[in-house]
TrEMBL record:
Name of the featured protein: Ssl1-domain-containing protein
Pfam families: Ssl1
Span of zinc fingers (C4-type): 292-309
Keyword Ubl conjugation: no
Keyword Membrane carried by entry: no
Disordered as annotated region, ranges: 356-401
Any GO molecular function: zinc ion binding
Amino acid sequence: KAKGKERWERGVQDSAATIREGEDGRLVVGLEESLEARKRKRLRQDTKPFQRGIIRHVVLALDLSEAMNQKDFRPNRLLKMLNYAEQYVGEFFEQNPISQMCVMGMYDGLCIRISEMSGNPTDHTKPISAMRDTRGLAYKEPKGSPSLQNTLEQARAALYHTPSHGTREVIIILGALLTLDPGDIHQTVKACIKDRIRVSIIGMGGRMKICSDICSKTNSGDDTSYNVAVDQHHFRELLLATTTPPVIRSTSASTQPNPASLLMMGFPSRVIEDDPTLCACHGHLTRGGYLCSRCNAKVCDLPATCPSCSLTLILSTHLARSYHHLFPLENWRAVSWRRAKLVGSSECRACMSPFPSIPDPLPPSVADELDRSGGRKGTSNDDDDGGGSDEEEQKAAESSR
């Protein structure tokens, strides 16, 4: 039992926060609705291939203002944001292994640097995790108001020296309903447009006109990059949705288009040494690592940029994981247990993931249908759903999960 609350009081509060009206007019639990909405969104996903920037340079800006002390997200906005930000870093580099990121914080009208631009997720997860420790030196009590202008200026400075073949993005998590700016933020937005910087904002409080203008102007008129979370589950979905590389849009007249060019990369193999040597990336003594294909400098992990010759060092698997964004998979098609048992597939032919076991006996509704059609379980007759053709069986095997 929660302190200071009776059980019936706690139940009413939780129900009011999670029960809402569904699309069909029925009252449904918020989590149940989000799961169904996620399934419908997956079925409606557009599989048309677009040109995307798979080499991304992202600045993640976290709100550390006084508004993050509010407890509409349990236990409060700050801790929930830090937890999801740490998960986001891991998911981001899982989906974009050849990209780079840095983390900043909006604190008391200033923009502080939490981590430097790096392609190693550990360089970002450690500082974010340290900010949750109230007894540590990295912990900062939420204070003051955020400044979108200072954040955009700091992000411009961090992205200024990034190569032109990659995208430049700023993802802002904003919990406050105001911005404390020292100057004209519209001039800063114009500078971001000139530098080809895309801005995405995820609000935790309410919509702001200035945020909508920033996202619309920096994304060629598309304001879908500005969203406000209604609860913590929705907030997590909005944050993880930014792991997909953005679509390359036509540039405005004030922006110089980026011509297509070839990018030189190195694919080194791992070496094991008898005696420890210093790595070029951290200066640590290690017995193994990866030797640069151009200058033979040793780095600890991949992907990385060679500290000596600035060559991009990756593995072929990293390139393949980024390449799949350009050609998305076809949408899944739901099939009945009867079709799944008819084909007899036990795992996905692409990723080898096992399918759920087929119930035996089949559900009553399916079994009755089989009895009425005169067929036997596990066999195909001349009914409409039987689909004796090899093409239908192959489609069912590829689409059933």
